[in-house]
Amino acid sequence: MKQKTLFVIAALLLLLGFIVAALLYNVEKEEQAGQFAAANNAALVRMHSPSLGPAEASVVIVEFLDPACETCAAFYPLVKQIMAANPGRIRLVLRYAPFHKGSDQVVAALEAARKQGKYWQALEMLLARQNDWVQNHAAQVARIWPLLEAAGLDLQKLRSDMAAPEIAGVIEQDLLDAQTLKVTKTPEYFVNGKPLPRFGIEPLKQLIDEALAASRR
Length: 217
Description:
Blueprint: H1 2-39, H2 41-44, E1 51-52, E2 59-65, H3 70-85, E3 90-96, H4 103-115, H5 119-128, H6 130-133, E4 134-135, E5 138-139, H7 145-150, H8 155-162, H9 165-180, E6 188-191, E7 194-195, H10 201-216
Helix pairs in contact: 4-5, 4-8
């Protein structure tokens, strides 16, 4: 009987130790995420970064995006749904990580579309019709022109503006910041500066929910 009691006590102590270790691990991870956000704040958002939502929003989602990335196209409408469910409380900031072949030219076209005031129309058209211009994970740039024209863009002006040095500078800066933030795949998200603990739409929702809850306190 005494041996059984000792076994139960030992098991309980082991369980308690596991719970304490798990709590300490979570606290440590939270502290690391906070330190990461503070140390890399400058690399997260730049003056040139396109954004959607109010500047004073309590939750800022930074997404590193490749327009030729299939997962980016799948996640974008889901993020828009989360924003619509929390009106005025979330701002989405886009950064570029054109890792796929030819994607840098598509990014240049998006930035040129911004000069015509049609950035979001161009982006959403290209993401929605991604299968029309991405083949074998590579951007077929010649196939984006009909889509951009359908979005209301002046193609002659667009092609001219794509060559602007400031657009090349935007792409270069975003790639440098991606390197600083250890972004190696797309889409990559940061919520109020904190990186996702693991990839997936559910971890993203959880991080956003936590940020929204914290802003209510």
